[in-house]
Amino acid sequence: MEKRVVFDGKLLPYALLMPQLLITIVFFYWPAAQAVWQSFFIQDAFGLTMQFVWFENYQVLFANPDYYRSMLTTLVFSCLVTFFSLSIALMFAVQADKQIKAAGAYKTFLMWPYAVAPAIAGVLWLFMFQPSLGLVAQAIRALGIDWNPQLNGGHAMTLVVMAATWKQISYNFLFFLAGLQSIPKSVIEAAAIDGARPARRFWTIIFPLLSPTTFFLLVVNIVYVFFDTFGIIDSVTGGGPAQATTTLVYKVFSDGRLGGDLGGSAAQSVILMILVIGLTAIQFRYIERKVQY
Questions:
Q1: Which spans are transmembrane here (predicted)?
Q2: What is the pLDDT of residues 59-87, one digit of tens each?
């Protein structure tokens, strides 16, 4: 006979939810509400005086060509990091799912980079690719390539893309590996018996069955690129050279913290929040239709 546990206390579910609700309210809803409120004011650098200006901060922002440039930079940066981090992680997960020697050690090594803080990851890549001291940079120069991310915007973008991709591969790898291990082996074996080659089995059976995992990681990676890459950009390029790596989230920091434009920075954060919510809604509205659960 099936036994069920019944809790008599009506307040217990709310008590269990309260810590998470408090964290969400304090660290998300309250700062978001403050950003919306501050975006309608012009403040001094110390935040001591405020003047209500309605939508003037937004008007000035959309009249600034540099803001549209940061939007384009963010678009390119997000597409590159998302594509390469998902592709490389999927390749590693497929290889790690095979029966090979020391598979556990390989999986552990692939997971370690996720424990590295974004700023530390940026510094590691900066040391390797620093034009005068980096070992990798010296090898590139030996090939006749004038590598200098401090002066060349394309080189700087390449460096931050590589650092951000390397940082996110481990996270994607974990979920892809879990998704691969949840696929029934009998389905793959049946396709192999029918004569399907490994590439055909992957694209017609394995990858479609990974679509829920891929969709989830696509949403997470977009959020990661828009927000969590700030530490990498700040430590590697500082948004330069000539704002070539200034993304939307870094522009919020540079205009607000460094430039003292607190109202304009708040307006930028509101627009950034709307963009991320909109992109997430679009993904759930259109891309999720193709997900096979």
A1: 12-30, 71-94, 106-128, 156-180, 201-227, 266-287
A2: 888 888 988 999 999 999 999 999 999 99
